[in-house]
ABC transporter substrate-binding protein YesO
Amino acid sequence: MVDMKLVSRKKAVLLSAVSMALLMSACGAGNAGNEAASDKKNADSKIKLKITWAGSQVRHDATLKALDAYSKLHPNIAFEPDYMGFDTYWTKMGTLSAARNLPDILQIDTNNLLEYAQRGQLMELGSDINMADIDPQLAKVGNVGGKQYAVPIGGNAIALQYDKVMFDKLGIKVPDKGFTWDELIQLARDVKPKLEKGKYLLQDMSVGVNQVEIDKYEIYQAAQGKGLANNAEGKFNIDKDTFVKFNELFAELRKEGIVPPIDVTVANKENDPKLDNLLNGTIMVQRGYAASLGAIDGVKPGEFGLMVAPSAKQSGSFLLPAQFFAVSKDSKYAEEAQKFIDWFINDQEAGKILGLSRGPQVSKKVSDALSPTYSDVEKQQVDLIEKAAPIASPFYSRPKGYGSFASEYNKISQQIGFGKITPEQGYDELKKKWEEIVGK
């Protein structure tokens, strides 16, 4: 006979256990839901800084590591990076600029800073960024109309790149302060009889070929105390008498066979192992930049060196940022963006991560701290900038349209080189093109 009381008790215990399990399950679901909601809330509370830049894969990798390091130091900061090569960068930035949708932090350069600042799309930067350890001339380039709109994030200086191996063979010693223009020209004449046919000490600096090469002329004009191609206000500043004299000088050097024939010069293709006239041994000295030494060293390691630009009445050297960081005027997180830029340029750990992926460090403290770790090429780059800094002419950001004008300069300089127009006619044409492209 079944004991009904026992059955009832078993049913009660079973129901109680089931109820408890259901209750615990419900509580568990509730906790999981709360945790998910909390995670979402924390994710949503993070400040997301949009940041964009251009460059090589080496720069991309280094910058991404730096962003990751900063987020670990500041868990409330996340980044939305957008990076690409230079060939597409300014096309995309132009689209974002037109849509008033610039990222919080953007890489900008000397050819675009003036345009974006005058258009009212960049924020005036404040005390959240410490620039005390940046060379004043370098920092000043980010200043437009008395307001700091951009911060250098890599240093650079115009220079002469030269073949150290050939200089050693010829017994040529580079003065610590570089050559004067007269000394350099005389050296090219003295060395010519010692060279094989088709070899030259000096490139023809009067002819522009690749990208922006008006700076070949600028180092001559700056040495005469006449400044660069544009002044602080972005106005045309090419001096006619100096320009004519410069072109007449190199026409004479071509005639004497001291610099390559015009057809050899215009066939030059920068950084191409076979077509670059420095890399293929046609010339031993060319206009270059401190930050670009690594590119040619990668083709022929240890063969090339740097010297400061030639002087005359003064040095032809000038400093310029390799790039800037700027903050969009429409950024909702301007304070956070500026604090990140401050870390990017002033923190030693950031410097270790970035290396010279953007050119030599702009903070002297960071550069001095990291210098024992630099390679020979990197040490040359830093040393050149330090030599140029005390003697450099002022450099000003370029006005809107300068890149297009520089392309016209190349064409006009080649017409002069081929004898199709005179230097005087070339100057008049340059001034006309400036008015059409930049002056408007």
